[in-house]
Design brief:
Elements: H1 5-28, H2 32-52, H3 56-80, H4 95-117, H5 128-133, H6 140-149, H7 153-196
Helix pairs in contact: 1-2, 2-3
GO molecular function, one term: NADH dehydrogenase (ubiquinone) activity
EC number: 7.1.1.-
Catalytic activity: a plastoquinone + NADH + (n+1) H(+)(in) = a plastoquinol + NAD(+) + n H(+)(out); a plastoquinone + NADPH + (n+1) H(+)(in) = a plastoquinol + NADP(+) + n H(+)(out)
């Protein structure tokens, strides 16, 4: 998009505000159904920000993979759950919650400092000399693939491992809750049988 700089920054600010509010809503809302639909808003806003930044291929991949697949998976997983938690249920804050909050805040601060201290002019996909000579730069998708498999290979693989660990952790937590629920059900059924006799 060829927009003036002030319009460009205003659009990105609105998109970033929507991403922030949607992300906070996912975490803060007690109703599981509402929390399941909000990532769709966040993923859509992220893909719109890619469009504003002239990364059309990444925006299309974001829309197809995250909005079209991941969010549908989350919503269908929520529809299988028993009952959504009501919005007036109290949240019990324990020491683990505060430790997690501190760790997430520290990680977020570290990432913000690293992003602000990085010299982004040194990291670019298009060689500036090609533009000065008058040659046309290469295909953005090919350049993106080349950069992902050369310069950014280690962070790309670490991110995939992180996502795999998060998926295994989510499955483990879900199984533990299911086992706990089944154990409580068997205890209550045995009590009912003993009281019946």
């Amino acid at each position: 998009m060829n927009l003036s700089e002030s319009v460009h920054e205003a659009i990105l600010t609105l998109l970033e505000l929507g991403i922030l509010l949607g992300s906070l809503g996912v975490v803060a809302l007690a109703n599981v159904v509402h929390s399941a639909f909000l990532p769709g808003l966040v993923f859509t806003r992220i893909s719109l920000s890619y469009i504003v930044l002239n990364a059309d291929f990444v925006a299309a991949a974001q829309s197809l993979v995250y909005v079209g697949a991941i969010n549908v998976l989350i919503v269908s997983a929520v529809t299988v759950t028993d009952e959504p938690t009501s919005s007036n249920s109290p949240t019990n804050w324990s020491t683990g919650h505060f430790i997690t909050l501190g760790a997430c805040t520290g990680l977020s601060s570290l990432l913000t400092i690293m992003i602000n201290s990085t010299k982004w002019s040194n990291i670019c996909f298009i060689n500036r000399s090609k533009i000065l000579v008058g040659e046309t730069p290469g295909n953005n998708v090919q350049e993106l693939g080349y950069q992902l498999l050369t310069t950014f290979l280690v962070p790309f693989e670490l991110l995939s491992i992180l996502l795999l660990v998060a998926l295994i952790g989510a499955i483990t937590l879900a199984r533990n809750e299911e086992v706990t629920t089944m154990n409580e059900g068997s205890v209550s059924s045995s009590r009912n049988n003993s009281s019946f006799f």
